[in-house]
Structures are given as C-alpha cells and as structure tokens.
Please model this.
Amino acid sequence: MMFWRPQTRVFLDRICIHQHDNILKAQAILSLAGILKKSDSMLILWDPTWTERLWCLFELAAFLKSNESKQVGGKKVIIRPTFIGPISIAIFMTATVAIIPTQMTFMNGKPTNIFLPLALCLIFGLIVAYSVVSTLRNYFRDLDIMKQQLLSISLDATRSACCDREHLDESGHRIICDRMVVKKCVDIWFGSQEAFENTVKSEVLNVLVQDLNERVFTTPWSLAVLVPGLWALTDTSFSFSRVSEAWYEHPTVLGILVTLSIWLTAATFIKSLVVPVCRLTRRKARNFTFEVGKNLAVLFALAGFILFII
Model:
C-alpha cells in the first residue's frame, strides 16, 4: 500500500482539466473525445443530481459514442450510487456487532447473561435496518425521477458549475462558459444538439436504468456485506459437528459444507427479498408521519418473513 504504484492510469476530469486557465480549459474540453476514446472504462459516481449536470451527461454520451464501432462489452461503464459505500459499511458493522452476543451465549459450557448486549445490538440493528429500507425506497424513487428527466432532457436546461457561479472564479475573474464549448463539441461529435439529446434519451437512459437497477445490489455485494454471518456460522458449525471416521462427517469437512451452504443461501435470499420489496413499495406516503410508518411497516414485514423462513 505504501510503496507499490498501481499501473492503471486514471483520468479524473475535475483534476485533469484546468479549472482556471480559459485557454487550457477549452483545449482540454475539445480534446476530451480522444481521451474518452482511449479509455477502457468509465466510472460514474451517481447521485440524484447527476441527471441535471451538463458535464455528466456529456461525458457519458461521448464515451458511448466513441464505442459505437466496437462490440458490446468492449468498454465498460461502471455506475455506483454514492450511498452504496456508507450503506455497505453500516450493514457490515451491524452484522459484525450482532454476532458478538450470539457467540457469547455459552462461555466455558455455561450460559452467560447476554440480554443487555443483545438488546443493544437489536436497537442498533433496527436503526440501521430502518435507514437501509428508507434509503432503498428513496433510491428507487430517484430512479423514476431520473427517467422522467432524461426523457425530457434539454441541453440548455442542464446545470453547469460555471453558470451557477455566473462565470466568475473564486477570485472574481471571468471564466469561459463550459456550455458554449460543450455545444461546439456536441455539434462536431453528434452532428447537432438534437442528435445529442436523442442519444441521452435512448442510449444513456438505457445504460443508467439497466446498471442502477440490476448491477448495484449484486449477489457478490450481498455476500461481502454479510460476511460476518460466515464467521458466526463457521464457529457454530464446527462446535456442533460430531467426530466420525467418515471423511464427509468429519468436523472440518462437514463444518465447511454446512457453513458455506447456509451463508450463500441466506445472503442471496435476503438480498433477493429486500431489494424487490423496497422497489415495489417505493411510492412516497402523503406526509412525513405516514412515510415513517410505511418504512416501519416494510421493515417489520421483511424481518418477520425472514425470521419465519429461518
């Protein structure tokens, strides 16, 4: 981590495009097509404001345009919502904390008093679970809004940081308008502003909808955030495995098989249940009180069903 330098080259527009020198900035924008064409993949950190931003739509549309002559899959577009990091850490930490009292039920063969730590873990878990349900329902509502925005997209209506600052930098000096330079690039690359907007309404929209719906909450993701369950199951399985001369009933072999099967099944099942339910119940309630009640209803319904299956 300290001395090995990664060989992958990364182009980060905010850093690599000069933000203060007007000439260098215009040259960089006009050269962006070459950079995108030479790039093997594009990482998009998505949030609800992404659709409104001129630069975001322009770069993704240009990246897809540069890949027209290549086979599908020749270049990768990786889209990750910005909340996926915090929510993954929260689920992982909650699962880690939850296994501690469950593994302390018996110490030295005697039952221990775990009611207080178990109650604290339950409260903490409910808070995190409520946040997860609320976040997921908001996320799928944002996707609906994104579709509507892209279907009625207009290049002139998108936001640009320079226009928001009235074309002045931090020192009060005039800066060029990104929108004017981008429009010239759009005319060169797409032929017209209308052709660019049609690309956004079709190709860009399809990529965003598919990735944000199907490639965010994947099975590998659910296995990763619920890996603390694997630790707990490993300890429990090995504890209850009985010694036998048969290799398939040996504690080590049997423990591994039982642990992996339960962990893989449970993690996949929970993900396959929670995500679709939050998508189906994404419609917002009439006011804040009803919205909180709806989140709680979804949470307890999911928890009750999972516990019943277990």
Summary: The longest helix spans residues 115-151. The beta strands are 41-46, 76-81, 106-107, 110-111. The first strand starts at residue 41 and ends at 46.
